[in-house]
Amino acid sequence: MSFLIPSKHTNLKYSVINISAHILKNLKELKVIEYDELLGMIKNELGDGVIELFSLCLSFLFMHGKVIYNESTDSLGLNNETI
């Protein structure tokens, strides 16, 4: 099953692209946010179905240089050089 290429059976609400867009939207508003707090916000916006894909979406954004992770504070922020 491909997470990036939707099929006719894919629920677009729970696609990697949509969840990643919501993550970026929240990070643009808040600048820096803790992992658990961001997960809670995305769950409230899209529902419990995002739990399975949340880490995959963060990995997708990290691989593309869009987000940075601060291990000491367990928080995420935007990489302003690429946005």
Report what the structure shows.
The mean pLDDT is 86. The relative contact order is 0.19. The chain has three helices and three strands. It has a three-stranded antiparallel β-sheet with strand order 1-3-2. The longest helix is centred in the first third of the chain and has 15 residues, at 16-30. Helix 1 (16-30) packs across helix 2 (35-46) and helix 1 (16-30) packs across helix 3. The protein is 48% helix and 13% strand. The chain is α+β, with helices and mostly antiparallel strands. It has one domain (13-78): Winged helix-like DNA-binding domain superfamily/Winged helix DNA-binding domain (Arc Repressor Mutant, subunit A, Orthogonal Bundle). It starts with 15 loop residues before the first helix and ends in a 5-residue tail after the last strand.
Query: What is the third-level CATH name, the topology?
Result: Arc Repressor Mutant, subunit A
CATH class: Mainly Alpha
CATH architecture: Orthogonal Bundle
The description of the largest β-sheet is:
3 strands, antiparallel
Tell me the number of strands.
Answer: 3
Q: Write down the overall geometry.
A: globular
Percent helix range: 40-55%
Unreliably modeled segments: none
Total count of helical runs of at least 4 residues = 3
Q: Specify the CATH homologous superfamily.
A: Winged helix-like DNA-binding domain superfamily/Winged helix DNA-binding domain
State the end-to-end distance. Answer: 29 Å
Strand order within the widest beta sheet: 1-3-2
Produce a short descriptive summary.
The chain contains 3 helices and 3 strands.
Main attributes?
Arc Repressor Mutant, subunit A, 83 residues, alpha+beta
